[in-house]
Amino acid sequence: MSFVDLFSQGFVQHALIAAVLVSIAAGIVGALVVVNRLVFMTGGIAHTAYGGVGTAIFLGLPVLPVTGLFTAAAALLLGGLTIRRRERTDTLIGVIWAAGMAFGLILVDLTPGYQAGLMTYLFGSILTVGSLELWLMAGIDALILGLALYYYRDLLSFSFDPVFARTRGIPVTGLYLMLLLLIAETVVMMIQVVGLLLVIALLTLPPYLAQRYTRTLGGMMLASGLFSLLFCLTGLYASYWFDIGSGPAIIATASLLYLSIVGIETLLSRASRA
Fold it and tell me: Which of 81, 86, 207, 245 can bridge 30 by disulfide, Cβ–Cβ 3.0-4.6 Å?
């Protein structure tokens, strides 16, 4: 099949649109995750989302809306617990992480019949994204973009000096809970692209790279989104070329490109000092 024939296929066009929509969210929210050092918290929220998948399958309801509500509730619970007990943050995240996964697995086990699409939610399949999912992604993108623009200065102060932000009257607690909700919804929109088990990579590798080449939070968000889009498109091409799963292909491509860029930079730095 030629590339013209390939790109004329509806499912490929949906995959390309999904890659753009996911990259917008990954760029904005991923930058905030890395700057605020919420990577472990994001991992906890992502794995807790499996409880929402299990609930939807058990009740026979649409997976993404139910998982979105379940993950948002779990994110608020984590936020409420960790605000008051900072010294127990790692333990509390671990407990909620494990409980969400266990809850989802139990509900899936209790659901009669074989769940053929379960692996899609664990490892993703951008080629199966439908029109409804694209509209949901676009809606979440609009919400994330709108909130990021409206609260940009507050998020900037909150991310780099929360104590100073509090003295200026910025609602630090509200911004923290809002950020956790945005992480939860970004995780849900990424489920069909890279899966619950791999979503953390797409929220951290692009902003880690973007941080090396930018000096502002806004620039980091933009560069992170572009890196995310590069990883998604390259991974999608690798998936087609090697006939492998698209979710693992996207993350493997992102990891290889990240290691290659960092490795080349390190070698050039050492060569310039020699």
Answer: 207
Q: Where do runs of H (alpha helix) occur along the chain?
A: 3-7, 10-35, 39-59, 63-84, 89-110, 118-123, 131-150, 152-160, 162-167, 172-194, 199-202, 205-213, 217-242, 246-273
Cα separation, 58 vs 104, whole angstroms = 9
Cα–Cα distance measured from residue 233 to residue 235, given in angstroms and rounded to the nearest whole number: 5
Residue with token string 């074989």: 114
Q: How many CA within 13 A on the CB side of residue 64? A: 22
Q: Give the angle subtended at the CA of 26 by the CAs of 21 and 28, to the nearest 5°.
A: 105
Q: How far apart are CA 202 and CA 190, in angstroms?
A: 9
**pLDDT per position as a tens digit, 59-82:** 989 888 899 999 999 999 988 888
Query: What distance in Å separates the CA atoms of residue 270 and residue 257, rounded to the nearest whole number?
Result: 20
Q: What tokens were used for 68?
A: 């979105």
In angstroms, rounded to a whole number, what is the distance separating the alpha carbons of residues 17 and 140?
14
Residues 170-212: pLDDT tens digits? 899 999 999 999 999 999 888 877 787 778 888 999 999 999 8
Contacts of 242 (CB under 8 A, 6+ apart): 249
Helix (H) or strand (E) holding 274: none
89-108 burial code (b ≥16 CB/10 A, e <16)? beebbeebbeebbebbeebb
pTM for the predicted model, two decimal places: 0.88
* 195, 120 Cβ separation under 8 angstroms: yes
